[in-house]
Input
Amino acid sequence: MDFLLLGLEQLARWDVALSMVAGAVIGVIVGAIPGAGAAVTIAILLPTTFAMDPLVGITLLLGVYCGSAYGCAIPAVLINTPGSPVAVLTAVEAYPMTMRGEGRRAMSIAYSSSFVGGIVAVAAMIFLTRPLAEFASRFGSAEFAMVALFALVLVVVGHVGQRVEAAAALSFGLFLATVGVDRAFNTQRFTFDHTFLMSGMPLVPVVIGLFAMSQAIVQMTDRSGPSPQHKLTGRFFDGFFEIFRYPVTLFGSSAFGVMCGILPGVGEFLAQQVSYTVAKRFARTRDQFGKGSPEGIIVSEATNNAVPPAAFIPMLALGIPGEELTAMMLAVFLVHNVIPGPQLFIDRPEFVAGLYTTLLLMNVVIIVFLMVATRWIALVATVEKRFVGAMILTLALVGTYATNYRLSDPLLALCFGFLGYVLRRHKWPVTPVLLGLVMGPIVEGRFRQALGTANGDFSVFVARPISAAMVIAIVVLIGLAIRGEWKRRKPLEEWQINAD
Output
């Protein structure tokens, strides 16, 4: 009870409440613009949050994160174009309903499913994060090193069909993490005598370049015209309570989204695909999937919205970001010297309580805003893509320069922008680069601590039960991934031999 009152006390602050509402509104709007999305917006807003109170900055970014998960359903319903890749399945199921004159029903099903998924995930976050942090308080440097390494392996394994590309991108990110002055030996690593690299590869230009500028270039080079928009017809509130006709699908998808959010590297897209496949197989109306099934929309949106809050569980409890957006938010934590991990719940209980409360209320704010403003938000779904790209690029350049007022930052961001553009064009994953950059110092630091206490003896990683179990899990995971890749590639090789 005291913890809840502490959270409400934080929410009573005008700056926290304002950032929550502003973040939610911005998130919904950018989610409704195809090609903008949460990653791009958070990358642009990231420098501005460094000057804010940590709870205010994190609340603003969380509002964008959660709001965009709701907003990306709007173009999926209206123009068959998902606001982000994770809304692809929503478009598959919602657009046929729109063509049948049930657009408002499809929209309300998407909103209510997202709301339930978000609330379930926040509840899981409240009940699971602290016990996990208390368990992690038993960890030494060896255990934290193995957890960090396990997270990196999951990042690669989670990119099914692109594991080699993901491993290469992650390795590049880990290499970027080595740039700077090695404090252990006081030597420069890959700085090439550039003073702005002495403190390491600057995170903000890399984030803005990889996610904002690269997406801007993609938008500006897109020659496709605006998609035709269909009017919302039907009764808006028809679908709000319809979701409870499918309780197993609704709460099962939400729970699965929570599980996938906790695992680093899985993300919304993979969680959604697996959840949709399972639901389609066991649903009573499986023949309606792909033709405008309400159950299909429920699976897509509930899973999609359950992942973001759940991704905060390992970050708050262990300091391990699970995907690109929590990695960006980790930068805000570190700038304000708020260190995620077991000690956070002891040192800053008001911060954690405020985070929980704002996340709960944020879903209510978003759903109310959508009920009032959907008809106007829908207009942004047809904005010209090249205009959106030019606007993103301009804001990204200004935001990068305004961080430190150094010309090197926007130039570096442009370099990473073109790198991200090449990766996107060749269908390579961009997220592992950022996760490698953020996780690199954590992995290196923990490994050095563990080996330093053991005088360089690598057996320290199997000397204690928890770290030994993590080593076994890593080996098994890598073995299963290799086996899966071999089974996947073998039919292709046999087909090529037969074709020759």
About this structure: The beta strands are 180-182, 187-189. The longest helix spans residues 465-499. The radius of gyration is 23 Å. The first strand starts at residue 180 and ends at 182.
